[in-house]
Structure formats: structure tokens, C-alpha cells
Amino acid sequence: MNLLPEAQLIWSPTVANSRMNRERNVSGVNSYEQEFKFKPEAYLAAKIATYGQASWLDLCCGRGNALIQTARHFEHQGQQHLLQLTGIDLVDGFQPIDKNLTCVEFVSSSLLDWMPTQSYDLITCVHGLHYLGDKLKVIETSIAALNPSGRFVANLDLNNLVIQGTNTSAYLKKSFKQLGIAYHARRKVLERVGGLAIKFDLQYLGADDHSGPNYTGQDAVTSHYSG
User: Fold this and answer.
1) Which of 2, 57, 86, 188 lies at a C-alpha separation of 20 to 30 Å from 73?
2) C-beta of residue 136 within 8 angstroms of C-beta of residue 200
3) Angle 169-175-176 (CA atoms, 0-180°, nearest 5)?
């Protein structure tokens, strides 16, 4: 098996051809609400009501539809000045931001190079982890970037991780439980409330971009580790 390092993985056809989150809406049909069973705009409204402001970081945001729709929602409420919305994606294919929407920023970058400079109330990654190499590093970085009451939620298929010499699924589920991370196995959704510096203490070996489709029916990347 030829495991790719990050510098080569980003050029893989499996990663480059990913369309899982390009056009997803914030709520309703084909939405973040459907994936994660809550409305991001309602969650952010509650944060504004409690703290007077709110921030959302969307990893692998695609064209950024969900963030644009959320910005418009809060603009109509006269509250976008209380909101900060940031989207990161490897491909600079973001939809244009209307001049009247001042709370949205898009960044084209690899998540493995991402180093947050602030904390967030909400961090999401809809199907993006399927196409990343060191998935656990991104999870570590995301959880560390949460506010004390912030929420991280992401799709994760445990079949796309391999830890040599161990039962990967059992190992990760035990680690998640110890770290206060909920894993909803049926929906394949990972969730954590509250920022925390965590470390999985595994060595990343590289990624297999030929492992085939996962539960989404789309080709995914399998990440390999050693203990």
C-alpha cells in the first residue's frame, strides 16, 4: 500500500473531485440541519442572546452557501454586526459575498496547515474529514479552538481510519469517551461541547486515497496511524 504524505494527498483525484459539501444549505433540504440535527442559525441566535455575539467556523465549507445564507438571515434581523462567520476550504471556489454582508470571510487553505488565532462558538465540518489525511490532528485543533461552551460537530466514518495492531473502532470509541467526545455511530457524527487541549498520542503514517467509497457512496481517504 502506497501511503501519501499531505503534500501529495491534496493533489489526489479523490480529494480534488470531492463535491460532498459544495452546494449544501444551512437548513432545510440538503443542509447542515439535516446532517447535524440542529439549525446553526438558531444555535448562533441563542449565543448572541446569551453573550451578545457569536462566531462560526465552517471547515471544508465548499462554496460557502451555508455561511452566506446565515449572514443574510442575521442581516435581516439587524444583527450581523454581532456575528463572525469564517469558512475554510482547500479550493477557492467560494460564491461572491454581497457588499452588504460584512460578517463573512472565506479562506483558501489546507486544514493541516490551519492554526486558529481565536476561539469559536461553533465549528463544523460536513463530510470534510472524509478527504483529509491526518483527521485526528484536525479534530484536536478544532476542539482546542472552541470557546468554553462552544460546539464542534463533524461527520466521521471510523472505517476511514486504521491504527496498526489494534481494533481501530474500539480504540477510538474508548478514546472519544475518555475525552468527552460523543460519537453517534449510526449517523457517523462526532461532537464535543467545550474547548479542550487533547492529544490522541498516535503517529500519523500517511493516507490511502484508493480505499474506495465509504458510507456516503463517494470515494474517501483512509488515514493510517501507529500507536
Assistant:
1) 188
2) yes
3) 90
